């Protein structure tokens, strides 16, 4: 089974491209969902989060308090590292199990792993190639401020918590430029998909 990492940076439009690929028939694993599942109420992941960050890390409904955790890690590299050391092994384990299941069932000849932080967690070494959804930095900053209502400082804080989109561009095997129209993006995705079918 051929594995493709689908990634981007915050506010580059990866969800848009993911939906386009699904419309074309691609099999996509949502790694954000995997990340949520490993810290769902009652999981060992959530127990580890509470042990590391205290009772405030768990919301009243028993789920991880993402706002609280987000505020902690965006401004504190040590806290961010502590969170990653808990989450990443659990996420990788869950993905391994899912990929093994798909291979056993022969479900698909190719699978996309929709992973926003693929390069940050060094998962690129576990896939056969990487497709990057790209926009220039200025477009990324503008879209993030508009989409989330962030100040420039708040947006920059989140952008700089990831590897720069230009650095990712230099590492990826395929780049989808999402700074133009939706039709422009759709045509790039369709072309890459068709070439992939021919290769496989």
UniProtKB/TrEMBL annotation:
Catalyzes the phosphorylation of the 3'-hydroxyl group of dephosphocoenzyme A to form coenzyme A. This is Dephospho-CoA kinase. It comes from Megasphaera micronuciformis F0359. Gene3D superfamilies: P-loop containing nucleotide triphosphate hydrolases. It is an enzyme of class 2 (transferase). Belongs to the CoaE family. Pathway: Cofactor biosynthesis; coenzyme A biosynthesis; CoA from (R)-pantothenate: step 5/5. Keywords: ATP-binding, Coenzyme A biosynthesis, Cytoplasm, Kinase, Nucleotide-binding, Transferase. InterPro entries: Depp_CoAkinase, P-loop_NTPase. It comes from the Bacteria.
């Amino acid at each position: 089974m051929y594995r493709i990492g689908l990634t981007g940076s915050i506010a580059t439009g990866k969800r848009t491209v993911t939906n386009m690929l699904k419309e074309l028939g691609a099999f996509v694993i949502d790694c954000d969902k995997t990340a949520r599942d490993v810290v769902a109420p009652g999981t060992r992941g959530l127990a580890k989060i509470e042990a590391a960050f205290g009772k405030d890390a768990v919301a009243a409904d028993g789920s991880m308090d993402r706002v609280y955790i987000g505020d902690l890690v965006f401004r504190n590299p040590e806290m961010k590292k502590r969170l990653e050391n808990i989450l990443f092994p659990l996420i990788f384990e869950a993905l391994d199990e899912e990929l093994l299941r798909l291979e056993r069932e022969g479900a698909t000849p190719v699978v996309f792993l929709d992973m926003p932080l693929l390069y940050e967690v060094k998962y690129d070494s576990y896939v056969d190639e990487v497709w990057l959804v790209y926009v220039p930095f200025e477009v990324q900053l503008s879209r993030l401020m508009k989409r989330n209502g962030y100040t420039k400082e708040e947006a920059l804080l989140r952008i700089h918590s990831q590897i720069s989109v230009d650095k990712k561009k230099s590492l990826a095997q395929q780049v989808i430029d999402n700074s133009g129209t939706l039709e422009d993006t759709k045509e790039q995705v369709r072309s890459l998909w068709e070439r992939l079918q021919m290769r496989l």
